[in-house]
Every structure is written in structure tokens, then in C-alpha cells.
Design goal:
By secondary structure, the protein is an all-alpha fold. It has one domain (10-155): Up-down Bundle (Ferritin). The protein is built from five helices and no strands. It has helices at 10-40, 46-73, 82-88, 100-127, 131-155. Helix 1 (10-40) crosses helix 3 and helix 1 packs antiparallel against helix 4 (100-127).
């Protein structure tokens, strides 16, 4: 393959891609968790939560593709297995099927974790003068901050 010459050193591209890999793993793990909760939610808020979770996992599905494509743009292979995601993700797996309010709490925690992952990845992108990755990460951070706020509001 032809060498990459986009004005970012190979060392910086690899460091930025590592932060993006962590963001990808967290996003994919939260996608799976949200989809699981969409399938299994019960209770008086069933319809509202079922539809909201669908909106969230649909948005996350688009996000994981965008993040993976940015990693590839930097010339690094994107992780794509459960094993790789488990090793990179900061979001813990959920055992069983929690109650609806616990689902909301867990998803809030997951979105907040992704915001923290974004902050770390953003610093790497800024250090490497990678405005494209910084913009992507900043957009993701804003989305997760807003989603966490809305989920927290549901908890009272």
C-alpha cells in the first residue's frame, strides 16, 4: 500500500488510532448493551424505553462505523471482534436482565464512561494536530453527554 502522507506522523497516527480503538470498543459494547435492553425491557415504561433504546442503538450503530473508518483512514486496522472489544472497553458487561430503572442507570453510566474515553482520545488527537479525529471525537462526546443528561432526567 502507498505510504500515508496526511501531515500526521506515523507515531501520532498510531497513538490517535489507539484512542479511537478504545472509543470504538466502548461504543460497540454500549451498542450491544442498549440493544439487549431494548429487547428485554419490561414494566410500565415499556413502550417509551423500548423505542428510546432503539433510537440510541441505531445512533450508536452509525457511530461505530464512523469511528472504525477513521481508524482505517489513519492507516491502522480497526478492531472487530468481541475479544478485541472486551480487551479495549472500559464498559463492563451486564449479567442477566436488570429492572428498567437499573437499565437506565447502567446506560447513563455507560454514556458517561464514553465521554471520559472521548476526553482522553481528544487530547491525543489534539496533540497530533489531527483536526478530523478531534472533530469526530468532539461530536461523539457531545452526543453522549446529551444522552446521559436525558437518561439521568428519567431517574429523577
Amino acid at each position: 500500500m502507498q505510504p500515508i502522507n496526511i501531515g500526521i506522523t506515523e507515531t501520532d497516527r498510531e497513538a490517535i488510532a489507539h484512542g479511537l480503538k478504545q472509543l470504538l470498543a466502548d461504543s460497540y459494547t454500549l451498542y450491544l448493551q442498549t440493544h439487549n435492553f431494548h429487547w428485554n425491557v419490561t414494566g410500565p415504561q415499556f413502550r417509551e424505553l423500548h423505542l428510546m433504546f432503539e433510537e440510541h442503538y441505531t445512533e450508536l450503530a452509525t457511530a461505530v462505523d464512523d469511528i472504525a473508518e477513521r481508524i482505517r483512514t489513519l492507516g491502522v486496522a480497526a478492531p472487530g471482534t468481541y475479544k478485541a472489544f472486551a480487551a479495549l472497553s472500559s464498559i463492563e458487561e451486564v449479567e442477566g436482565v436488570p429492572e428498567a430503572s437499573e437499565m437506565i442507570r447502567l446506560l447513563t453510566t455507560g454514556h458517561e464512561q464514553i465521554v471520559r474515553t472521548c476526553r482522553s482520545a481528544l487530547a491525543r488527537a489534539q496533540q497530533g494536530d489531527d483536526e478530523s479525529s478531534a472533530a469526530l471525537i468532539s461530536d461523539r462526546m457531545r452526543q453522549h453527554e446529551k444522552t446521559a443528561w436525558m437518561l439521568r432526567a428519567m431517574l429523577g
